Amino acid sequence: MTSRRLEESMGAVQMGLVNTFKGFQSKVLPPLSPKV
């Protein structure tokens, strides 16, 4: 695996984690909480 492929896969994983966290956050925290 080239370093380029590794960077792309890591970026995809990171984006997935961020999206999952945002979805979890929006469900758990009250709507009044500030968006970060």
Q: Kindly state the mean pLDDT as a whole number?
A: 83
Number of H- or I-type helical stretches: 1
Low-confidence stretches: none
Q: Characterize the overall form.
A: rod-shaped
Domain tally: 1
Work out the number of β strands. Answer: 0
Helix content: over 70%
N- and C-termini, Cα separation: 35 Å
State the major sheet.
none
Radius of gyration: 14 Å
Class from helix and strand fractions: mainly alpha
What letter string, H or E per element, gives the SSE order? H
Beta-strand residue fraction: under 5%
Record the SSE blueprint.
Layout: H1 3-28
Can you walk me through this structure?
With 36 residues, the chain is an all-alpha fold. The protein has one domain (1-28). The chain has one helix and no strands. The protein has one helix at residues 3-28. The model has no long low-confidence stretch (mean pLDDT 83).
Question: Which keywords apply here?
Answer:
HYDIN isoform 2; 36 residues; single chain
Please give a quick description of this structure.
The relative contact order is 0.10.
